[in-house]
């Protein structure tokens, strides 16, 4: 029976980063992954392919619309959807091959098959051909990630009714697309197909989009998407979906009560969130129980069973790839006898639409609810030199700081390259920086990052460029 220091079940961002760190620390490590490629949902059917399509569709819209004409570039682009999908697939392949290289570099063994716990210190692997083997290890790390959440009455067939995976590979540009759910995944994928020519309607149960986002930021974001042509039906619930050969009939009702209506669309994307993938993992064989939502309770990544750990989307905290990566490093370092910790308040969130939205720390609503006195500094991109030159002036940067100590408590950006800009504030907040620290640091000119600095200046009322 093979003996290991660590066996990780799942080869996504949590699993493969855990494996690499374990290899670096000299632990004999194996990853059990049932996909034919490494990288999990993120690399194969999530973060990476969606960003490839977001980038391509953004360039297509720029070339096909007024943006290129304004810049003095006259072109008449033609969409080649087959090639767009091919370049997406090529990018994904390159990334997954890169992880295989990193495994070899760090002496990590990839065991292909579906893994489950088979008692203390044992992992059972069922290969694609049905053969079963049992591995022995000192530590088991569960990193199986998550899967799209289902909705009663809406059966995903990956034909007319698709989830996020199916929406990445539609065979044609829909004339009409209904997105169920106004969260990050639905809005990103809805943006892709709208840019390529689809009429997009988003149906959301809540009376707002992107739950968890700062309310003012979300309103600005929604106005921008509406201006681009996305239609919203908020405070609405989908009670049924009937797929035909060439369309889908959706039954939609107001959450507050009222008459139902029928919406017709060529395709429907179900994107109401994700749920932890914790079924059939043999948790009961070591006495580990999940909560009602399927999450595994942990204390610093330790489960209730000795030698069994869990990270990423299967435990509480933001269900984000980069959070899983941080969990991975902290968990492995704890296993190796080092210190490991992740501050979930410093995990940033990003929506990769156009404009982008990014935030870290507390929202205004959270600070008000907690009774924390705070100050606000805000700066519009319409007053930022680089944004003006690039014709990307929608949105703002907003800094929330403690009214007494000036410590930065939260930052919210809607605008160009927001996802790149938020990193500065993650570092600042990790070091308990004050808004004045950012305000008095020289930033390069002209850059979008100056908007973040000007917002910091605004906390104390000395914004200089607006």
Account of the 3D structure:
With 466 residues, the chain is of the alpha/beta class. Helix content is 33%, strand content 25%. It is globular and about 65 Å long. The relative contact order is 0.11.
In short:
Helices cover about 35% and strands about 25% of the residues.
Arithmetic mean of pLDDT: 97
Please state the overall shape, judged from the principal axes of the Cα atoms: globular
The total strand number stands at 22
CATH superfamily of the largest domain: FAD/NAD(P)-binding domain
CATH topology of the largest domain: the name is FAD/NAD(P)-binding domain
* Assigned CATH class of the largest domain: Alpha Beta
Beta content = 15-25%
Main sheet overview: 7 strands, mixed
Low-confidence stretches: none
Give me the Rg, rounded. 23 Å
CATH architecture of the largest domain, please?
3-Layer(bba) Sandwich
Q: Count of helical segments?
A: 14
């Amino acid at each position: 029976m093979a003996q290991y220091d660590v066996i990780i079940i799942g080869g996504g961002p949590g699993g493969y980063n855990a494996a690499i760190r374990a290899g670096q620390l000299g632990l004999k490590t194996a990853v059990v992954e049932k996909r034919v490629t490494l990288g999990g949902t993120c690399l194969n059917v999530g973060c990476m392919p969606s960003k490839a399509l977001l980038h391509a569709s953004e360039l297509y819209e720029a070339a096909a619309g007024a943006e290129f004409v304004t810049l003095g570039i006259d072109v008449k682009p033609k969409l080649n959807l087959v090639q767009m999908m091919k370049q997406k697939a090529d990018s994904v392949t390159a990334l997954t091959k890169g992880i295989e290289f990193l495994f070899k570099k760090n002496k990590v063994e990839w065991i292909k098959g579906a893994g489950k716990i088979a008692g203390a210190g044992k992992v059972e692997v069922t290969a694609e051909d049905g053969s079963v083997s049992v591995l022995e290890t000192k530590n088991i790390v569960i990193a199986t990630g998550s899967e799209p959440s289902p909705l009663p009455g809406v059966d995903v067939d990956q034909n007319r009714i698709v989830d996020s995976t199916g929406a990445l590979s539609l065979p044609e540009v829909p004339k009409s697309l209904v997105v169920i759910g106004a969260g990050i995944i639905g809005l990103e994928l809805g943006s892709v197909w709208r840019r390529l020519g689809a009429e997009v309607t988003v149906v959301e149960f809540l009376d707002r989009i992107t739950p968890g986002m700062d309310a003012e930021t979300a309103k600005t974001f929604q106005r921008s998407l509406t201006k681009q042509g996305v239609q919203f039906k908020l405070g609405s619930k989908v009670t049924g979906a009937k797929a035909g050969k060439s369309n889908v009939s959706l039954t939609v009702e107001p959450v507050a009560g009222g008459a139902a209506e029928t919406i017709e669309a060529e395709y429907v994307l179900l994107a109401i969130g994700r749920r932890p993938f914790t079924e059939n993992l043999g948790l009961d064989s070591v006495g580990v129980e999940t909560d009602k939502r399927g999450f595994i309770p942990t204390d610093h990544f330790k489960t209730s069973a000795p030698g069994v750990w869990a990270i990423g989307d299967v435990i509480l905290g933001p269900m984000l790839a980069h959070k899983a990566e941080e969990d991975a490093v902290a968990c492995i370092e704890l296993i190796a006898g080092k210190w490991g910790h992740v501050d979930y308040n410093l995990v940033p969130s990003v929506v990769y639409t156009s404009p982008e939205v990014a935030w870290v720390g507390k929202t205004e609503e959270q600070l008000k609810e907690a009774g924390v006195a705070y100050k606000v500094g805000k700066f519009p991109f319409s007053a930022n030199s680089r944004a003006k030159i690039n014709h990307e002036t929608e949105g703002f940067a907003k800094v929330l700081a403690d009214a007494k100590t000036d410590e930065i408590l939260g930052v919210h950006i809607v605008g160009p390259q927001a996802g790149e800009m938020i990193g500065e504030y993650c570092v600042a907040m990790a070091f308990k920086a004050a808004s004045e620290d950012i305000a008095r640091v020289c930033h390069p000119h002209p850059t979008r990052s100056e908007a973040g600095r000007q917002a910091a200046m605004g906390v104390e009322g000395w914004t200089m460029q607006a």
